[in-house]
Amino acid sequence: MAISSKIQGFISQSSWIRRMFEEGDHLKRQYGAENVFDFSLGNPNVAPPLLFKEWLRRIASEEIPNKHGYMPNAGYTETREAVAAYQSSLRGVTLSYQQIIMTCGAGGALNVILKSLLDQGDEVIILTPFFVEYCFYVDNAGGTAKLVKTKEDFSLDLEAIGHAITGKTKAILINSPNNPTGKVYDSQSINALAELLRERSRALGKDIYLVSDEPYVDIVYDGLKAPSILAAYQNSIVATSYSKSLSLPGERIGYIAVHPQLRDGEAILDALILCNRILGFINAPALMQRVIAKLQGARVAVEEYARKRDLLCSGLAACGYKFNKPEGAFYLFPRSPVPDDVSFVKALLEEKIITVPGSGFGCPGFFRISYCVEDETIMKAMAGFAKVMKHFQ
């Protein structure tokens, strides 16, 4: 076989998101884009803030020595200082630039973190439902993913997490606001999780790391705020990006933030910087680093996503769909009216509605709708959503 047996297996498990996105492309060519309702991909459709465009033009036109050259692998010091100063004002800890490492998006950040922490066979607890690439990221670093279910409302099941921790546990990976559910873990839950990890770390005589994937941290609704894991737990590391908060997913710009009192922090920071290079990322894009340094505190118009959420939720509730209203991100995760979520999603395809089965997120019986789309797409799709629901009732 030309390719490795592992990758051959991974291809068969590969992302339902991309599979459905490609199906959407096929339908758009066949019927015209205006007649297809594509809710498959979390590709932000709210424009970046005007401030981004202003700084991009300005920096692109400036004469800056070595503007597009290599820089320290952790990123430009001035960018890291800007990020550290702003994040210190939000996260309940004082960060220096040394605790910030600029990365190629949150995906790059997570791979760097896991490569730095894991020995062969170390376990990483992942909460279901989860972002589809997490298991692959853990495998990239030689680790083993251990899946633990959340509660019915997708909140943390601390009892289940406690049972899952063993002598092989190296880290737990959480994602809040969550993709695919839109759940925001509240302060009480995060503090309880931190206490659990402290207790189990003492009992096992080893450190268990809390890794938080936070690309949606600025996209929250109804006055909620995603609590800081850095304020809650000493052995914590944040991976995040500007893909969603500034609508820049294609620019691949993010960072790692490390707790300033992380045990063995100096060694871990050295490892993170090394892995940023040896994994092939080398460093985060130079131009974007220069722009991001000027945009701390800026974000997209979150109220537009809130409006889209409400439009979608109102329409689907009227059709009889059952769901937990998202508290953040831009995904809705309704329950499928039949246990076979794949067959239900295929029925929606007959109405040219493209969604993603919950099985792809480790949670069969549900399906994901990405509502970062035009309002017209949501409204025009409602007749099809209603028709398919009526068929299965």
Give the N-terminus to C-terminus distance in angstroms. 46 Å
* Reported CATH architecture of the largest domain: 3-Layer(aba) Sandwich
Q: Percent helix among the residues? A: 40-55%
Shape: globular
Average of pLDDT? 94
CATH class of the largest domain: Alpha Beta
Helical segment tally? 14
What CATH calls the topology of the largest domain is Aspartate Aminotransferase, domain 2
Low-confidence stretches: none
Number of strands: 12
* Succession of helices and strands: HHEHHEHEHEHEHEHEEHHHEHEEEH
The structural class is: alpha/beta
As a whole number of angstroms, the C-alpha radius of gyration is: 21 Å
What proportion of the residues form beta strands (DSSP E)? 5-15%
Strand order of the largest sheet: 2-8-7-6-5-3-4
Give the full name of the CATH homologous superfamily of the largest domain.
Type I PLP-dependent aspartate aminotransferase-like (Major domain)
